[in-house]
Amino acid sequence: MASIVGCKKGDFPFNYLGIPLGANMNRICNWDPIVNIFKNRLSSWKAHTLSIGGRVVLIKAVLESLLIYYLSIFKAPIKVIDKLESLMRNFLWGGSEEVRKMHWVAWDKVTLPNKFDGLGFCKLKTVNEALLSKWVWRYRVEEESLWRRVVSACHGKSRKWPYLPSNPAISGV
Q: What is the pTM of this model?
């Protein structure tokens, strides 16, 4: 079919819009490109030259939004979430992976909303669960949508959760 259409044949996994398709995202090593992007945004010179207010803005505006795309599609392993939050914590307090500085306030306090005296950072695990839950809600509400029909056709009725069809023989998203 590839020669008829005039394109070259590829292999799995491959990247599409920055997301590795066909890769098992339950494996921590498949999250390395995302972790590396995260690290590149947090070079140590930025931590030394920015005030704490600047670091807060950088974390909220860049880092938290960078992950939304990935977290809305894949359930991130706990070790990946811990690694990313560790990078955020170290950057907030002016450190890096090599140099750890004192964390003056507990991360649980920092992630509280502003009205509860926190800085309003997101807990990545909670954001990941909320974004994935939206797909469950959409599946239940959008009964005639094409994507729902594709999911139903792929997973069929082999084992049905109360809210989603599931076929354990099919891996991935």
A: 0.78
Taking the CA atoms of residue 129, residue 135, residue 137 and residue 140 in that order, the dihedral angle to the nearest 10 degrees is: -140
> Where is pLDDT greater, at 115 or 15?
115
Q: How many Cα atoms within 13 Å fall on the side-chain side of residue 76? A: 27
CA-nearest of 120, 124, 101 to 110 is 120
Return the structure tokens found at 69: 């795309």
Question: Concatenated DSSP letters for 55-124?
Answer: HHHHIIIIIHHHHHHHHTTS---HHHHHHHHHHHHHHHTT--SSS-----S-HHHHTS-GGGTS--PPPH
- pLDDT for 61 equals 86
CA distance 173 to 68: 16
pLDDT at 124 over 60: yes
Stated length of the chain: 173
Closest CA to 18 of 60, 58, 87, 67: 67
112 is written with which tokens?
Answer: 């509280």
- Mean pLDDT for all residues in the chain: 82
